[in-house]
Design goal:
The protein contains 10 helices and no strands. The chain is elongated and about 60 Å long. It is mainly alpha-helical. It has 2 domains: about 90 residues, Rna Polymerase Sigma Factor, Chain: A; about 100 residues, Arc Repressor Mutant, subunit A (Orthogonal Bundle).
């Protein structure tokens, strides 16, 4: 079986169901980096992400016969990964996330911002390649609660569409849009405070 043919999802699935060793290697080569990256973004722990990535591929190989092809192969794999991550998070009962509400914008009765919205876009441009700023952004992303962080990672980090994200998470598209919007508002507010006050809260 040629490597080129195994790039086709349908061919790859057929070979996986037939127990081909080449197909297992092709599956791992194609998806391991993305699965590990997704798991790390959600779990924020390298060893946990490595374990989840291994579990994902074991699950995919074991359950490939039950996959009906109703969604794209990567959507199915991402769904397995996200579910594994969420189960692990709930098992550890992590409480280090912050409330997103205190960082949501406040409006007056007239619908105007209750406080001035600072324009720090030029400052961000100057610091775009700044390693420290990148670490700050990562820190704030990590502080999002899981339901917002997962949507943000799939949409803004992995670059999936709202429809793809909704399919993976089993949410409606409006729910995905709402969570993504709130996550972005939260990150913008925290970055605004950092850029104007020069300190990490």
């Amino acid at each position: 079986m040629s490597t080129e043919r195994l790039q086709d999802d349908n061919v790859l699935l057929e070979e996986l169901r037939a127990g081909s060793e080449e197909s297992v290697e092709a599956l791992f080569d194609r998806f391991h980096g993305k699965v590990y990256s997704l798991a790390l973004s959600i779990l924020k722990n390298d060893s946990d992400a490595q374990e989840v990535a291994q579990d994902v591929f074991i699950t995919v190989i074991r359950k490939v016969g039950t996959f009906k092809g109703d969604s794209a192969l990567y959507s199915w794999i991402y769904r397995i990964c996200v579910n594994s991550c969420l189960m692990r998070l709930r098992g550890k009962r992590r409480n280090e996330t912050v409330s997103i509400e205190e960082f949501m914008p406040v409006f007056t009765e007239e619908g105007m911002h209750a406080s001035l919205v600072d324009d720090w876009s030029k400052e961000v441009e100057r610091n775009l390649l700044n390693k420290e700023l990148g670490e700050i952004i990562q820190r704030y992303t990590d502080s999002l609660s899981e339901k917002y962080r997962v949507v943000f990672v799939l949409s803004d980090v992995e670059g999936l569409s709202n429809e793809e994200t909704s399919e993976i998470l089993g949410l409606s598209v409006p729910a995905v849009k709402s969570r993504l919007h709130r996550a972005r508002l939260y990150l913008r507010e925290r970055l605004t405070r950092y850029m104007t006050q020069g300190k990490v809260e």
